[in-house]
Structures are given as C-alpha cells and as structure tokens.
C-alpha cells in the first residue's frame, strides 16, 4: 500500500507542478486553448495518443472486446494505429493546420462557422460538442475508478471526485500547454507500463505460447456458434463482422472528434506534422495494440469476481481482475498507467468542451463583444461546470463503459467527420450538406438509444459515421453551391503552403 501511495503522490505532484509552470502560456485565449499554435511534434503526437487512449480503452474496450473476440481483438489496436493515427495525421494533419490558421479558427465549431460561412452551424456544432462529450467523460471516470477499487478498495465515488478535482486544477491553471506537457509525461509512463503489465500477466499463465494454447481450448459461448473450439485464439475471432464495426468506430471516429482534431490546430508548423505522424503511429501500435492484446486473454482469468448475481459477465471488471493478482509494484504501475491515460483524455475533453461553449456559443451570441480576460474566466468556470455534470453521470452510469463511449463517439464523429474532412479538400461541399451530416450523425445515435433498432451502440456509431460520409457529398450534389469567391479565398491558403513542398 505504501508503494502505491508514494507512486500516486509523485504522479499528482508532477501534474500540478506542470499546471503551475504552464500558467505563463495561458494568459490569453489563444494560449489557453491552443498553446499559441506553437506546440512541437513530440508534444502534439503524445497529446494526440494520450487523448485517444484512456481507461475506456484499457478497462472498458480491452475487457469487453477481448472477452468477445479473444486475441483477434488486437486488430482493433492495429486499426487504431493505422487508420486512427497514421491515416488521420496524413489526411488531416497539414491541411487542418493550414486552413484553421488561415481562417483563425480555434475550435471545430468555429471551423464550421467560417468554412461554411454560417453562424448557425457554429452554434449548433458547439451544442453537439458540449452535450455528447459528457457521456464520454463519464465513461473515463468509470473505468478509472474500477482500477482504483481493485488497488485500494476505495469507494467508487471518492475515486471519481478526486480525479475530477485533480484534472480540473491543472487544466484551469495551464490550459492547453499544461495538458500537452503532462500528456508527454503520461505517455512515457503508459509506454513503459503496458509492456510491463503484458509481460507480468502472461507470465502468470506460463508465457505467451502457453497462454495461447490455453485460450485455444475454450469454446465459444455464443448461441450462433455454440461449442466452437479455438475461435478465441484464431486470426479473425468468432465474429469478424462485429469486430470490423468496432475497428471502424474506434479508428475512423477520431477523424471527427473535436478534442483529437484540435491537436492539428495547435502544432507549430506543417513540417512538424511529418514527425508527429511517425511518433503518433508508433505510440498507438504499442499502447492500443498492447491493451487489446492483453484483453484478449481475459477468459483465462474467469472467476466469480467478474460476474454479477445472475452469472452475467461484468466486462468492466475483467481487466481489473486480471491485474489484481500482480505484485504491489506492478499494481502501482498499472494505477499510474491508467491515471496517465485517463487524466490526459479528461483534460482534453474538459478543455475542448469549455472552450467550444465559450468561444462558439456564449461569445457573440449570449454575450456581445466579450473581452479576452472575460472569455478566459468563463472558460475556467465552464471547466468546473462540465466536470461536475460528468461526475454526476459517472456516479450512476447507465451502461457499460464501451456503450457509453460508443454513444458519444457515434454522435460526434457521425455529425462532424464528413463535413470536416471533405471541407478541407473539396470546394463543392454545401451548407445544406453540413446540416444533413449533423442530422444524420446525431439522429442515428439518439434514435437508436430510444428505439434500439441497431443492437449495439458501437455498431450504431460506426453506421452513423459511414452514413455521414455518404450523405454529405450526395446532398452537396443536389443543393446550391456556396459563393465561389468566398470559397476560393478560403482555399487560397493551400497554394503557397502546399506548393512549397
């Protein structure tokens, strides 16, 4: 216990110290929200990766999908690395940096407002961001608290509240730069931690080959493929189609998430994007690939601890159960690992939500001509407000972690992915197409919550994204085009920047 507490105190001390140190970078709105658009490739790449992978992945997704698909769930991690990191940086990185700098947009809703010349789009987008980042934040608290429960036998509610306070303190103090520096530190901890944990867990089962052999004799318990032997150690697992849905949601989804895309706004140059692409991809292979690979062996640790009174598996308890028997020093490392992953994600979420609501909804709509100082004050107040709401939800979460995250990602990425990406490349995308994409993404996600015509919220989220990618160009084809001169002036920014390369 002493080892765990010491590790935690050191960790918390460093996080707060970074927040205090970064205050000098958060004296104006641009510095608080984007670090002055002067963040290097290493900090940006680690900020992207640590915002991507949190307790939701380590506890919720790794546990649930590792149980369902066995070691084939590793494909989810590889998909995250290739699609969610490599391709996202390659396709979006430079163009996002160039266009958002040219438009002087600081958030994703602000981009929609200026790119498509519509204040209404900006306001609606900011509302979507604020509403649907809340369940994602709650899911992060949920996963984090389960690990704390295993390590310290501490009440779930206390864990949630302590985490909320600590995250709020360093984000309020240092803004984006504090989160970026802390993300770098936390990313290093995550890299070391996941390797150590995988090695320790597999050694309990006699090593990798022995663990795979034990997994291969476990029959599938699905009614559709009853008593099928060896599926959990196979290449594509027992359900390749649903596995693909998870890959799409967790990989393609990042392209439309405001807290992820905003990292490209803040990177200091287009040249930095090239280095950031490589760093981010390697980080994702190790962290995400490692998490899902670890979760794939969850069935080897089946016990009453992961089942409720009816005998149903509690997916969120699988990974905590796997690590509960590790030596104290390794449990301490796991705690700091999950803390690192979660605090980085939480900080990105609360900063994105508060800045979006302040800059895109309140400023110029509710309050006219807000000063820089007042905007900073309101953002800091909203950080507290956002944390309180998400904590209330986290204290009584309605569904498993993975489902909670699926709802959030499905609505956000389903609404934003298509008009954001197409808007960087095509001059033909119309305002009506953006509205159609918003309606499609949010509509599919929300209606499915109440009607349930798509069994899995994960698949519903994936379908919402794909639907948006189809709907947006189709509606653009049949609706009036934007003013040609305005569009040309927007795309003028690419001529000099991209030609230089």
Mean pLDDT: 85
The best one-word shape is globular
Number of individual domains:
1
What is the CATH topology descriptor?
Sodium/glucose cotransporter
CATH architectural grouping? Up-down Bundle
Beta-strand segment tally:
0
Distance between the termini: 55 Å
- Helix-strand category: mainly alpha
Radius of gyration: 22 Å
Specify the CATH class. Mainly Alpha
Task: List SSEs in N-to-C order.
Answer: HHHHHHHHHHHHHHHHHHH
* Main beta-sheet strand count, sense and barrel state: none
Strand content: under 5%
Q: CATH superfamily name?
A: Sodium/glucose cotransporter
Low-pLDDT regions = none
Which characteristics define this entry?
Sodium/glucose cotransporter; 501 residues; mainly alpha; 76% helix
Question: Can you walk through the features of this model?
Answer:
There is one protein chain. The protein is mainly α. It has a single domain, classed as Sodium/glucose cotransporter (Up-down Bundle). The protein has 19 helices and no strands.
Task: Briefly say what this structure is.
The protein has 501 residues and is mainly α.
Topology (elements, then pairings):
Blueprint: H1 2-21, H2 29-34, H3 41-52, H4 55-69, H5 74-103, H6 108-115, H7 119-152, H8 156-203, H9 208-216, H10 240-252, H11 258-266, H12 270-295, H13 318-323, H14 328-362, H15 372-395, H16 401-425, H17 431-451, H18 457-478, H19 484-499
Helix pairs in contact: 1-8, 1-14, 3-8, 3-11, 3-12, 3-14, 4-7, 4-12, 5-10, 5-11, 5-12, 5-19, 6-7, 7-8, 7-14, 7-15, 7-16, 8-12, 8-14, 8-15, 10-18, 11-14, 14-15, 16-17, 16-18, 17-18
């Amino acid at each position: 216990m002493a080892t765990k507490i010491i590790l935690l105190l050191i960790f918390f001390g460093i996080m707060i110290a970074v927040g205090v140190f970064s205050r000098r970078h958060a004296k104006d709105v641009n510095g608080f929200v984007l670090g002055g658009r002067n963040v290097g490739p290493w900090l940006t790449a680690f900020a992207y990766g640590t915002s991507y992978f949190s307790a939701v992945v380590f506890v919720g997704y790794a546990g649930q999908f590792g149980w369902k698909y066995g070691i084939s769930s590793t494909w989810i991690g590889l998909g995250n690395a290739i699609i969610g990191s490599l391709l996202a940086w390659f396709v979006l990185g430079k163009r996002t940096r160039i266009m958002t700098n040219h438009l002087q947009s600081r958030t994703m809703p602000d981009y929609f407002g200026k790119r498509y010349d519509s204040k209404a789009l900006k306001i609606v987008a900011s509302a979507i961001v604020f509403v649907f980042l809340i369940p994602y934040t709650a899911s992060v608290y949920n996963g984090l608290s389960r690990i704390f429960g295993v390590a310290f036998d501490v009440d779930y509610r206390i864990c949630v509240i302590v985490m909320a306070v600590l995250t709020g303190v360093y984000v309020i103090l240092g803004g984006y730069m504090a989160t970026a520096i802390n993300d770098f530190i936390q990313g290093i901890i995550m890299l070391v931690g996941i390797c150590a944990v995988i090695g320790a867990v597999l050694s309990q089962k006699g090593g990798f080959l022995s663990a795979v052999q034990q997994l291969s004799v476990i029959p599938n318990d699905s009614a559709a493929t009853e008593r099928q032997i060896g599926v959990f150690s196979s290449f594509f697992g027992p359900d390749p189609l649903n596995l693909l849905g998870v890959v799409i949601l967790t990989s393609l989804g990042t392209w439309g998430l405001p807290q992820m895309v905003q990292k490209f706004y803040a990177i200091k140059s287009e040249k930095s994007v090239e280095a950031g692409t490589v760093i981010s991809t390697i980080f994702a292979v190790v962290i995400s690939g490692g998490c899902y690979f670890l979760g794939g062996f969850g069935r080897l640790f089946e016990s009453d601890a992961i089942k409720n009174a009816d005998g149903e598996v509690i997916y969120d308890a699988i990974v905590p159960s796997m690590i509960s028997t590790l030596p104290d020093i390794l449990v301490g490392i796991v705690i700091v690992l999950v803390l690192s992953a979660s605090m980085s994600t939480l900080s990105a979420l609360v900063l994105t939500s508060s800045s979006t609501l302040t800059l895109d909804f309140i400023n110029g709509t509710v309050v006219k001509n807000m000063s820089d100082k007042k905007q900073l004050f309101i953002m800091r107040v909203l950080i507290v407000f956002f944390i309180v709401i998400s904590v209330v939800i986290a204290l009584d979460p309605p569904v498993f972690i993975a489902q909670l995250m699926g709802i959030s990602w499905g609505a956000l990425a389903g609404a934003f992915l298509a008009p954001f990406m197409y808007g960087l490349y095509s001059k033909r995308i119309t305002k009506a197409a953006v509205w159609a994409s918003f309606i499609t993404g949010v509509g599919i996600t929300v209606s499915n919550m109440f009607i349930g015509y798509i069994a899995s919220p994960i698949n519903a989220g994936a379908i919402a994204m794909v639907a948006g990618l189809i709907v947006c160009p189709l509606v653009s084809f049949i609706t009036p085009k934007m003013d040609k001169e305005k569009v040309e002036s927007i795309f003028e920014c690419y001529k000099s920047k991209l030609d230089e390369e």
